[in-house]
UniProtKB/TrEMBL annotation:
Entries under InterPro entries matching the protein: AraC-bd_2 (IPR035418), AraC_XylS_family_regulators (IPR050204), Homeodomain-like_sf (IPR009057), HTH_AraC (IPR018060), HTH_AraC-typ_CS (IPR018062), Tscrpt_reg_AraC-type_HTH (IPR020449)
Cross-referenced SMART domains: HTH_ARAC
GO MF annotations, alphabetized: DNA-binding transcription factor activity; sequence-specific DNA binding
Name of one Pfam family that matches: AraC_binding_2
Organism the protein comes from: Acidocella aromatica
Alphabetical keyword list: DNA-binding, Transcription, Transcription regulation
PROSITE patterns associated with the record: HTH_ARAC_FAMILY_1, HTH_ARAC_FAMILY_2
Location of the HTH araC/xylS-type domain: 212-311
Residue stretches spanning the membrane: none
Name of the protein in its database record: AraC-like DNA-binding protein
Length: 319
């Protein structure tokens, strides 16, 4: 996807603060900004959309960004930001916790909760924006990781941070960008889960492990028409009531998670070259018929399966 660039370089000094506030609001969400010297503030942001995530790079003078309660609209879709500072440490406060994240680390911020974020000198930052729904589908209770610093140098965290940097610089077409964006979410989820393995209490880790096992079992049996909470619970050796509790804590249900996974898998198949009929894809992923598949696909992705495939490959494919 193309790279969008915004800079204060061509903006009059007295108008830069207002201009930058508008850029930040459009890139992330409304924030209150403070500057060490707003008349001399200089900033540049480069943004690239990769399917379900937005990647941006900010290079600015010292600034403070605050998210206030009155800036959070009731019912708005929640998002998380993942920030990777590259030249100057950042200070972050949210959910009663205050941390400092330096170079080689990254931190998670919840966008629909108040917070304060700042750095005292010119900085270079990579920021990944991902929906609350997308991350919660891969990570048990992501909020527990907010205002925590993660290692972005080694292991899975290092792989995630390096992939963010490379992905931001990489031009990608619609299909490749979508796949890359979802892979970034997977890498982030693995990094957060590894942190949980190292630092969470035994009960929390056990519940998280059960949830991950259940999610994996679902993704491995999407083509099974009999896939249900009962079969998932049996495969994981847990009760159906406990399974429902695990998913309810993530803000969804077992049935909803199965449906969304099936639709994502069907969308992946639509991206592949070939002549698969829509009815064949629908039945392969456990939908009762093509009409049900098309209706639910439109509800989730905003367009029919046929329109989605035609936009990628052109018309003329079988129905």
């Amino acid at each position: 996807m193309s790279l969008e660039c915004y800079s204060t370089a061509g903006v009059a000094l007295g108008e830069r603060a207002a201009y930058w506030s508008a850029v930040i609001s459009d890139t992330y969400f409304p924030l209150h900004l403070s500057y060490r010297d707003e008349t001399r503030f200089d900033g540049r942001v480069e943004r690239r959309m990769l399917g379900p995530v937005s990647l941006s790079r900010l290079r600015t003078e010292a600034a403070q960004y605050e998210r206030f309660t009155d800036q959070i609209r009731t019912g708005e879709a929640g998002h998380y930001l993942v920030t990777i500072p590259c030249s100057t440490p950042v200070q972050f406060h949210q959910l009663g916790r205050t941390v400092t994240c330096g170079m080689g680390g990254f931190l998670l911020e919840r966008g629909d909760e108040p917070y304060r974020f700042s750095y005292d000198a010119r900085n270079d930052l990579f920021v990944m924006k991902v929906s609350r729904e997308a991350l919660s589908a891969r990570v048990y209770q992501p909020d527990r990781f907010c205002a925590s610093v993660f290692d972005g140098r080694d292991g899975l965290g290092g792989l995630f941070a390096e992939t963010v940097r490379r992905a931001h610089a990489m031009a990608a077409d619609l299909v490749a960008g979508d796949i890359l964006g979802r892979q970034l979410i997977e890498l982030l989820a693995l990094s957060l889960d590894r942190q949980a393995d190292c630092s969470e209490s035994v009960p929390s880790v056990t519940r998280a492990a059960h949830l991950l096992r259940a999610q994996k079992a679902i993704r491995q049996h999407l083509s099974d028409p009999d896939l249900s909470p009962e079969t998932v619970a049996a495969a994981c050796g847990i009760s159906k009531r406990y399974l429902h509790e695990l998913f309810n804590e993530t803000g969804t249900t077992v049935a909803q998670y199965i449906r969304v996974c099936r639709l994502h898998a069907a969308r992946d198949m639509l991206q592949m070259p070939g002549q698969q009929r829509l009815s064949t894809i629908a039945y392969h992923f456990g939908f009762c018929d093509q009409a049900q598949f098309s209706r639910q696909f439109r509800e989730l992705f905003g367009q029919s399966p046929r329109a989605y495939r035609d936009a990628l490959h052109g018309g003329g494919k079988p129905n």
